[in-house]
Amino acid sequence: MPPPTLADIETQLYVQAVKLFIAADDLEDINSEISDPEDDMIYATQTVTEDLELAAAVQAESEEIAMVLRSLGVELMVQAEDLRGDGTRGPYLQYPRSKDFFECLLSLREKEFRTMFR
User: Fold this and answer.
1) How far is the C-alpha of 47 from the C-alpha of 111, rounded, in Å?
2) pLDDT recorded at residue 90
3) Which range is least confidently modeled, 14-28, 32-46, 61-75?
4) For the residues of 53-118, what is the DSSP string, one character each?
5) What's this model's pTM, rounded to 2 decimal places?
6) How many Å apart are CA 79 and CA 13, to the nearest integer?
């Protein structure tokens, strides 16, 4: 199997980010569909208040989880965008060098020349 290219990795990061956004939206949809326990007259008054407190706690936690999922999705999108580069680097994410780079290094002293190729 050939190693993945930068474009493949970028695509995978975008797909994962979209999945995180969808999961956050689904979590909010599920949270909005939770029925209000006051609608059911079967519960006793104490049970209704306990259920309301539990539903409020679950809703608060699910909102926090949705926010975390969205922030992770944004982070993945930023990482995918960073893979494209800013255009100042050459292939293999290295800074481009001049054509006479090696000739300039040959004019250095021996110790400096060796430190460049360690």
Assistant:
1) 81
2) 56
3) 32-46
4) HHHHHHHHHHHHHHHHHHHHHHHHHHHHHHHH--SSS-GGG-----TTHHHHHHTS-HHHHHHHT-
5) 0.58
6) 8
The amino acid sitting at 118 is R
Each residue's pLDDT tens digit, 96-112: 567 787 787 788 888 88
Euclidean distance between CA atoms 12 and 64, whole angstroms: 25
Tell which residue, 66, 60, 61, 74, has the closest CA to residue 27: 66
CB 13 within 8 A of CB 7: no
Sign of CA dihedral 108, 112, 116, 118: positive
